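Protocol step 4 of 6: structure prediction from sequence.
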Amino acid sequence: MRSDGRFFDAVEKPPPAAARLSSAAPGSAMRLPFASSPRLDAPSVSLPQYPVAVPYPHPRAVDFAQQQQQHSYRYPPPPSQYSPQEHQQHYQQQQPLLPQFQPAAGSSFNVRVRPKPRRSPKTRVLTQMVKLAGFHVLNAVLGFSAFSLLSTGVGSSVSLLPLCCVGIIVFRIVLYGVHVLAELDVMLANFVSPAREKILLELPLDVGAASTGYILAPSLEQFSPMSLMALLYFLSVKFGVAVLSALSAAWSVFPIIAFLAVISGNARSLDFEAASVKFAYEDDSTGFLVAAACFCIIGCALMVAAAKVSTRTTKFFCSEPLARHALRAPSHQPLTVTANFSYGST
């Protein structure tokens, strides 16, 4: 007999405990089944809260995957891919949604490139002056060496010309030396020239009719007007530029040596003469230092001017425009037929 007064049917099965427990409110305590009266020692059963939260991927990862898919190869598909039945756009197999990949802190992907430290204006000016001083020293050495070697070579070729034309062979060697000296001169000019004004030593592959810039003249190795002009340049103009470079380097370097001697305490025997006026450190130390500073300023200004003159003369005598070597398509003219031909005529 049941607790409500009705008889228990043997055919009827009692409801399962899970169904009776699920009929109660979630989280509420329920008595044990088939209990006629509440008991104090009956344990209470607490049900879990429903519905249970399902973990979803982070929204940023989904957005990143969708953006990566939209910017992937062949997305959206070309308009020519349509299904024959409904004329709807047929999409290819899409890439799976991938989470955003962030490399670890210690991985090799996090490569930090340190920016180059900015140099102060004083440091840049000092670096430029040191570069100009080295350029003028090398330029003077190159000018004097070229003058002595080429003058000797030209004299030998002229004197050996009656001797079975041996002078022609010597002159050919002289022209090869002109090419080598011109290449060294171009390298020195590029040392102090900005990037947009540098002269190329070899012909690039992508040269065109609109190319700008200059290249070392390839005809310097052969007997050509360009090689003869370069020979005259090294025998006349380059020698004068070398004298100017030596003078500017001396006027800018010797006063600095004098200042270093004064600082070290070895300037008692220093003296120099300019415009029939002698400046000695023992007689007038202040006048000596002022004159040395003036000569240093004049020498620095002369170095800048001499460098511009040297680079421009090198560009004029040893190089030619790059657009001159551009590959041009051959011009085809239409064939003009003057005679009248007819079938069956002889």
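Step 5 (inspection) to follow. Residues 143-324 form one domain.
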